[in-house]
Amino acid sequence: MKALRIDHVGIVVKDLDQATATYARHFDLQVDPSRGGEIPALGIKNAFMPIGDSALEFIQPLTDQGPVAQFAKERGEGQYLLSIEVDDVAAAVEHLRGLGYRVGDPNNGIAFVSPKSSHGVNLQLIQRTAR
């Protein structure tokens, strides 16, 4: 397993349009229109704002169910996850499990490391290139 870069940082917000407007105004970032949108299966809508070789992902819960809504209810707005691009997500999962980490099964090139295994960070592993 090789970690390649920070892919993006996920931030839970109450109002997606307001949050992206704030970051556009204060940091001159622009929403990437080719990414994000409503994801009914997850009960969220999101938007990505590239910054260097990474991005900020703003995530607004659309329902009161699911992990993003639970996070917002318990903690309010704030950093939700750190996404690290890896060269091979299946190998990364196998490697981390071998070290005793709690890691979910890969699904569509993504796996989550339990915050209990990553010093309180909701860590997402993502594989951007096909294997």
From TrEMBL:
Keyword tags: Metal-binding
Source species of the chain = Tepidiforma flava
Stated name of the protein: VOC family protein
Q: Which Pfam families match?
A: Glyoxalase_4
Which InterPro entries does this one have?
A: Glyas_Bleomycin-R_OHBP_Dase, MMCE/EMCE_epimerase, VOC_core
Q: Which residues form the VOC domain?
A: 5-131
